[in-house]
Design a protein that fits this description.
94 residues; Ubiquitin-like (UB roll); 0% helix; 36% strand
């Protein structure tokens, strides 16, 4: 999916602060919405849905939270609040 995309900047969605990978997103610069390319998570994420923002340090080989609420090209990953994760509901027998 990443090869098919015309985007040149990708964002990782983490499940929470433990930095567990969930999905890869691209950002629409006009709307600032993130659109899922692959993985598990909401199809589209608006800037107001973002909880924490992370930057990757290649020196330390780790992600660190940055004190920002604005998505930009310097952002590498983000999390969303717990209530936005879809819960699997048990299916009703037919």
């Amino acid at each position: 999916e990443m090869e098919k995309s015309s985007a040149n900047h990708f964002l990782i969605l983490f499940r929470d602060a433990s930095c567990q990978f969930r999905a890869v997103y691209t950002m629409n610069p006009e709307t600032e919405e993130m659109v899922r390319l692959t993985g598990i998570g909401p199809r589209v994420i608006s800037p107001t849905m973002v909880e924490s923002i992370y930057k990757y340090s290649s020196d330390r080989k780790q992600f660190t939270v940055i004190p920002s609420k604005t998505m930009s090209m310097s952002v590498d990953a983000f999390t969303i609040p717990n209530h936005l994760w879809e819960r699997k509901r048990p299916g009703t027998p037919k």
